[in-house]
Specification:
Elements (H helix, E strand, L loop, with lengths): L9 H5 L7 E5 L1 E6 L8 E6 L3 E7 L3 E2 L5 E10 L4 E8 L5 E6 L7 E12 L6 E10 L5 E10 L11 H5 L7 E5 L1 E6 L16 E6 L3 E7 L10 E9 L6 E9 L5 E8 L8 E8 L6 E11 L4 E11 L16 H5 L8 E4 L3 E4 L14 E5 L4 E10 L5 E12 L2 E10 L5 E6 L3 E2 L6 E9 L6 E10 L4 E12 L4 E6 L4 E6 L6 E9 L4 E3 L1 E2 L2 E2 L3 E2 L5 E5 L8 E9 L5 E6 L12 E5 L8 E7 L9 E4 L8 E4 L6 E8 L2 H12 L4 E5 L8 E5 L16 E9 L15 H7 L3 H7 L3 H6 L6
């Protein structure tokens, strides 16, 4: 794994496949060892005699005087501690000086970080990396690998300097505040091989006497009132019962502290724990800073601090991508308590999870919900500013710890005065199982007069006692995951589904109020177990019912197991049928031909059946052998009122395709797929110029066709002009005028 921004070659960095990037410099032999993490190879330094041994990079690397550079490596030794240095050379290759790190506090066979930062001195043109350890006897060994030389690797967006963040130069950016002394030490910390935001040197705060001890960063970067900021530090407590904290402070232009927010570590032990704090800069804030401390310390207790940052809130703590979540970090991630959450209804109690790292979907804490009875409770947030008239997505991660839980996500929309406008709830989800985290999400459209939103997590314990964890609560403005647009003019509904996992197969149903489901139709056929290559899917449903409520259900199945993986549902919609004297005749395969017609007479349906009647001698009743009763048959009588209407209906019937007849509610006719027999279309009067025609359409009920549809109901002359450079292009793409009208291209 190449370290980003490394001046060193891959071989010099990882010591793979050989040690050609290194050379022994003093009192040692250099060999290739094994057991590394950045590739298997490691550099093995064996002391020739007692005393300091050194190795350096074979090559020198260009540097500029005054620039700050950083080097680190991972080291391991069972007997002797190590240090690392930056060797500055002039343009002739002569040594100017060496910037050494502190020596590791004790030897450790576990891989641990050694590092140092420094400014290239005047006259420096090149630099080398030095590895050093002092042997007490010949034959003692030090291993190292995963070596970096380059510019300091900073937490994106950090407003503090590199030395205030990682203490790699002097640590002078922090100062004693109360009851402590400050120093830099290098404990043998086993950071992950690919964790580059921590080095070897750490700020060590040692309590002078019993009581609260604290230190503060002397840097105060500028901030903007109303902007949310996030601070962090890795804390190493002296014991698991120690009350260690990090604090974010805001100051006015005169340096007067306006407000502060503190986040206290619930330590599970004495390792290194990332503690995060956040707050919105208050009115009048001009600068901000960080502090860290330990409450009720005993004299001589020490707490270490590493990787401190202060930054405007981004998409995540280590990201520089813009934040889109309007829920404050303290309410979203629960890193410093329960935030603004309350329980306005129900018996549930809420608290921050404990200890650090025990329960979390993101970062290190979550909200613990406990219910002593099998009942429902509402967990309610603070209020957050939103934009009206746009789609918002509420997301929350939930983990069932004990018992069984159902959950509903709801958004309460509030106007500028804080009054409730409406509440938009999701469907109810049953948490599938105990153990995993599940992400629940719900899309809601903010009303036109919405100014803020409040979130309700309505959770119901199905058994008692039950415990639920909640984390990573988000309210973000996004395009809706599913979106339905009704077009009354074409009696259709367009469904857009976004954020599709293309590894899953998709099935799309239209669902009526009675729960019945019907597969939709797209260009390929019925929408059953579709394979998607795009993360967005769009289909126009020209067969949706008129005047009755319907919704859509989108199901996603594993392509390997065939099992249902997840599903989505939409809200309920209704297509306005308009004048009830009209009905639709639609061609499912050619929606551009669909026509609305004026009905004179609905069919007088008959349902034929083949029967054989036998009358045995001596018996009163006949014996009747019957087949299956056929579908409906009858004559639909409609009028066309103009030459254009007449030609359009004739064009629709000319294909001989199966049609869908849809009447408005109140006519007593359900939607039916039909085949149309021989038609007659006499004038309604003997007047030769009479435009009206009376059509008698013999209908026979048939099954729903399974084929795909060609084109859409909105293919126009303008579309033809936009998509074709010339008449020759049109001729090459379409075999007939009918194909052109239907947008049925050659080879499609």
């Amino acid at each position: 794994m190449a370290i980003p921004g490394n001046f060193l070659s891959a071989t010099t960095e990882s010591i793979d496949p050989n040690t050609s990037g290194w050379v022994a410099k003093l009192n040692c032999s250099l060999g290739l060892g094994s057991g590394g993490r950045n590739g298997d190879g490691v550099a093995k330094l064996t002391a020739t005699a007692a005393g300091e041994m050194q190795a350096r990079t074979f090559s020198s690397y260009p540097v500029a005087p005054g620039e700050t550079y950083w080097t680190f490596a991972d080291a391991s030794s069972t007997t002797i501690p190590e240090r690392i240095g930056l060797r500055w050379l002039n343009s002739s290759g002569a040594e100017i000086s060496i910037t050494w790190s502190l020596t590791t506090a004790s030897a450790s066979s576990a891989w641990h970080r050694i590092s140092v930062g420094g400014q290239a001195p005047a006259g420096a043109a090149q630099a080398q990396v030095l590895i050093s350890s002092t042997a007490t006897a010949a034959g003692q060994i030090t291993f190292f690998e995963n070596v970096y030389l380059g510019y300091p690797m900073r937490v994106p967006g950090n407003l503090l300097s590199f030395d205030a963040e990682q203490f790699e130069i002097s640590g002078s950016a922090w100062a004693t505040e109360a009851n402590c002394t400050l120093s830099r030490t290098v404990p043998a910390v086993p950071w992950a091989v690919n964790w580059y935001y921590a080095g070897g040197e750490m700020l060590t705060l040692t309590a002078t006497a019993a009581g609260t001890a604290s230190a503060a960063c002397t840097e105060r970067p500028a901030v903007t009132p109303g902007v949310e900021y996030v601070g962090q530090a890795y804390l190493n407590p002296p014991s698991s019962s120690s009350s260690c904290w990090v604090e974010l402070r805001f100051y006015d232009a005169s340096g007067v502290k306006l407000s502060s927010a503190r986040s206290t570590l619930a330590a599970p032990g004495t390792s290194y724990y990332r503690q995060v704090v956040s707050a919105v800069a208050p009115a009048g804030a001009a600068t901000a800073s960080l502090a860290a401390g330990i409450n009720s310390a005993t004299a001589g207790q020490a707490m270490r601090v590493e990787c401190a940052f202060l930054k405007a809130r981004a998409a995540s703590t280590y990201s520089d991508l813009p934040n889109t979540n309007v829920v404050p970090y303290s309410d979203s991630s629960f890193e410093q308590g329960i935030g603004q959450w309350t329980v306005p209804a129900g018996v549930a109690t809420i608290s921050q999870s404990t200890p650090w790292g025990a329960q979390a979907s993101v970062d290190y804490y979550s909200l613990t919900v406990s219910s002593a009875t099998a009942s429902g409770s509402t967990i309610r947030s603070g209020t957050y500013a939103v934009s009206p008239g746009v789609n918002w997505r509420l997301k929350a991660s939930m983990k069932q710890v004990t018992g069984a839980w159902n959950a509903v996500l709801a958004v309460r929309w509030l106007d500028a005065s804080g009054s409730l406008i409406s509440t938009d709830p999701s469907t109810s989800w049953a948490i599938p199982s105990t153990g995993p985290w599940y992400l629940l999400q719900h899309d809601a459209l903010a009303p036109a007069n919405a100014a803020s939103a409040q979130l309700d997590l309505i959770v119901t314990a199905a058994s008692a006692p039950s415990t639920l964890q909640i984390d990573n609560v988000q309210l973000v403005q996004v395009l809706p995951q599913t979106e339905v647009t009704i077009d009354n003019a074409s009696a259709s509904a367009t469904l857009v589904t976004r954020e599709i996992n293309t590894t899953l197969l998709m099935t799309v149903y239209r669902v009526l109020a009675n729960g019945s489901r019907t597969l939709l139709r797209d260009l390929t056929g019925l929408t059953d177990h579709l394979a998607n290559t795009d993360d967005t899917y769009l289909v126009t449903d020209y067969e949706a019912p008129l005047g009755v409520p319907f919704s859509y259900r989108i199901e996603f199945y594993s392509a390997t197991t065939g099992l249902l993986a997840t599903y989505r549902t939409t809200n309920t919609y209704v297509i306005d049928p308009g004048d009830p004297n009209y009905a639709w005749l639609k061609d499912p395969a050619r929606p551009i031909l669909n026509r609305r017609v004026l009905v004179k007479q609905a069919p007088e349906w008959k349902q034929p059946i083949d029967q054989n009647v036998m009358r045995p001698r001596g018996r009163q009743n006949a014996v009747v052998l019957s087949g299956v009763r056929s579908g409906r048959e009858g004559d639909l009588v409609v009028w066309t009122q103009s030459d254009d209407e007449r030609e359009a209906l004739r064009f629709l019937l000319a294909t001989g395709n199966v049609l869908l007849w849809q009447a408005a509610p109140g006519m007593g006719e359900s939607d039916v797929y039909v085949s149309v027999g021989e038609t007659a279309l006499p004038r309604v009067s003997t007047y030769a110029r009479e435009p009206w025609r009376e059509w008698t359409l013999p209908l026979t009920e048939v099954d729903q066709p399974t084929g795909g549809m060609a084109g859409s109901a909105t293919w126009t002359v303008r579309d033809v002009a936009l998509e074709n450079a010339s008449a020759l292009t049109v001729v090459a793409r379409y075999a007939t005028v009918l194909d052109l009208a239907l947008d049925q291209r050659i080879g499609s």
